[in-house]
UniProtKB/TrEMBL annotation:
Pfam families: Chromate_transp (PF02417). Belongs to the chromate ion transporter (CHR) (TC 2.A.51) family. It comes from Corynebacterium stercoris. PANTHER family: CHROMATE ION TRANSPORTER (EUROFUNG) (PTHR33567). It is a multi-pass membrane protein. InterPro entries: Chr_Tranpt_l_chain, Chromate_transpt. It is found in: Cell membrane. The chain crosses the membrane at residues 71-94, 106-126, 138-171, 198-219, 231-249, 294-316, 328-349, 355-373. Keywords: Cell membrane, Membrane, Transmembrane, Transmembrane helix. It comes from the Bacteria. This is Chromate efflux transporter.
Length: 395
């Protein structure tokens, strides 16, 4: 657990660039560096978490912690990856710091450029190990085109489903090992087995809270219960995570008078300048909410928006680990994995490249970061810090 906590805390302090970049950081740390899983196993997790509602990168992190060190490891992964940005945004809500005014600072431009390199390296590495033949390349290309042409979180879910169907059609029942990995024998990694009973209870709790919380909020009529209800539903019903959750949070806080519009926008600007998941914007809103103590509001909002993701990971993972060993599911996952590569390639262009590359200087920073990662094998956190320093000096 301490190993997981240490690694994810470092990632939580250095993972700038949004959910797609986070997946790149995770792959470099757990597939390339530590060999905790293969590219195929990692792509399986990404496909699963893209398919579920909630913050995809946070769910991937929770799943990695769960597989590595059980439920304590899952909690450690969430705390390490999430708390740095929670603390920064709560401090900003209290007026300590000026992160909002730094949203267009040079160091942030350097970080966004570094994110381009991180995602590019992840796409390149995953394509080499997963897209190993013409069939998989066709699935990845189709996913890439669909996600670019029809940009929507629901498109990503649909593309994964189509990739699974294509995997079954193209690979069938007779290519178990090849469909599952595409490049040889899987590496057996240390992994904890989760209880299917606990998983079923977690799924029941996920659905039960979704139904019960609005009724409880109506009966209790307290600011704390209203916050927990609103933020739980936002975390449970949004696909795609990140910026997609913002309209739900705005509707839950501004019209109801919990925060005013200017406060909402200021926090959104600050959220762009901190590492980790954008869902921690909820922590800022909870700390800024009227009618409740700032600390209690921040705790309720943070727990509520991430709780659905945690319940889904606990609920689905035991059945997923069993299902992915089935021959038909193995073929479907081969198609889903290829589709994930296409989705990440599309995200490399939009929003990572379009937001990170604003001119020749940021292009140069991104190119240098890619060489440092891919050829010189420097640790990502070193590259990220260097890009921030260079960006602060020259942008």
């Amino acid at each position: 657990m301490l190993e997981v906590l240490t690694i994810f805390t470092r990632l939580g302090l250095t993972s700038f660039g949004g959910p797609t970049a986070h997946l790149g950081y995770f792959r470099d740390e757990f597939v390339e560096k530590r060999k905790w899983m293969t590219d195929e196993e990692y792509a399986d997790l990404v496909a699963l978490c893209q398919f579920m509602p909630g913050p995809a990168s946070s769910q991937v992190g929770m799943a990695i912690g769960l597989k590595r060190a059980g439920y304590a490891g899952m909690l450690a992964a969430w705390v390490g990856f999430t708390m740095p940005s929670v603390i920064a945004l709560v401090l900003f809500a209290l007026g300590v710091g000026q992160l909002g005014s730094l949203a267009d600072a040079g160091w942030l431009a350097g970080l966004k450029a570094a994110a381009v390199a991180v995602v590019a390296q992840a796409v390149l590495g995953m394509s080499k190990s997963i897209v190993t033949d013409g069939k998989r390349a066709a699935i990845a290309l189709a996913a890439f085109i669909l996600v670019l042409v029809v940009p929507s979180p629901f498109t990503q879910v649909g593309v994964i489903v189509l990739g699974m169907v294509a995997g079954v059609v193209l690979f069938g029942l007779g290519e178990k090992q090849q469909a599952a990995g595409g490049a040889g024998t899987r590496v057996r990694t240390q992994s904890r087995t989760q209880s299917r009973t606990v998983g079923a209870v977690a799924l029941a709790a996920f659905a039960g809270l979704l139904v019960a919380l609005p009724a409880l909020a109506g009966m209790m009529r307290s600011t704390g219960m209203d916050i927990f209800d609103s933020f739980y539903r936002a975390g449970a019903l949004v696909f795609g995570g990140g910026h997609v959750v913002l309209p739900l949070l705005e509707q839950a806080t501004v019209p109801t008078g919990l925060v005013d519009h200017d406060t909402f926008l200021a926090g959104y600007g600050a959220a762009q300048a901190v590492p980790g998941p954008l869902f921690t914007f909820a922590s800022y809103l909870g700390a800024s909410a009227s009618g409740i103590n700032w600390l209690w509001g921040a705790i309720l909002a943070t727990v509520a928006i991430f709780l659905p993701a945690a319940l889904l990971v606990i609920g689905v993972m035991p059945f997923w680990d069993q299902l992915r060993q089935h021959r038909l599911a193995s073929a479907a996952l081969a198609g889903a994995n290829a589709a994930v590569v296409g989705i990440l390639a599309a995200a490399l262009y939009n929003p990572v490249f379009t937001a990170g590359i604003t001119g020749p200087i940021t292009m140069a920073i991104a190119a240098a970061a890619f060489v440092a990662l891919h050829m010189w094998k420097l640790p990502p956190w070193v590259v990220v810090v260097a890009a921030a320093v260079v960006g602060g000096v020259v942008v």
